[in-house]
Amino acid sequence: MKDNFSTQSADYAIYRPTYPQELYDYLFTLVKNKETAWDCATGNGQVARVLARYFGAVYATDISENQLKNALQLPNITYKVEPAEQTSVGNESFDLITVAQAIHWFNFEAFYAEVRRTLKPDGLFAVIGYGIMSIDKKVDKVIHKLYEDILGKYWDSERRYIEEGYKTIPFPFEEITAPHFQIKTTWNFNQLIGYLNTWSSLQHYKKANDRNPLEYLFTELKEAWGDDAEKNVHFPVLLRIGR
């Protein structure tokens, strides 16, 4: 698994969007017991902290120590620096396993073997993610220019799984058809810039060119944003659920 996010882990904790409560409520209706959960590739613990409100114990793993340093510490969350494909827990340990905005980086075969090993017989497995956001026509046009024209060749090949809505990842489980969810939030202009700076492709560009590509687009983005203090932002939620 690639570690594309350690260098901007503090910004990641601040600017990345959070999943809607309706998504969690739906998942929890499908989970029979709420003793233990595993959030793999937990990052800053965004999902783990929600699971901790409902499960007796949460195991949260990531390969980035820097990411875990920015995670919220709670008494029933155990954070470990471990790859998703190889954990130090016993067989049939978890009622729920989640992986959010990360499965495209995994070795699918090895990870799924670990899911089968550690999931309880009646447990639930959920792959979660989100696609590119939409704000309004003017802003979206400039962001598309950044995404495609400037950063296109700097995206890792695994990004295609996000673009394809996680529909093309292998998923050898008994799948449950899930409803559609959206992340809905409001941002000011600085939050937009903060979020764009967390993109892995932007970090790759900076390393290759010693310059932040947002410098080229800042004025154009600002003009597209206009005078609004805040704008509504929507992300489509990607979701695959299985047993």
UniProtKB/TrEMBL annotation:
Gene3D superfamilies: Vaccinia Virus protein VP39 (3.40.50.150)
Every Methyltransferase type domain range: 39-126
One annotated GO biological process: methylation
SUPFAM superfamilies in UniProt: S-adenosyl-L-methionine-dependent methyltransferases
Sequence intervals crossing the membrane: none
Keywords of this entry: Methyltransferase, Transferase
Record-linked Pfam families: Methyltransf_11
A GO term for molecular function: methyltransferase activity
The UniProt record lists the keyword Endoplasmic reticulum: no
Family affiliation: Belongs to the methyltransferase superfamily.
Protein name stated in the entry: Class I SAM-dependent methyltransferase
Species of the source: Pedobacter jeongneungensis
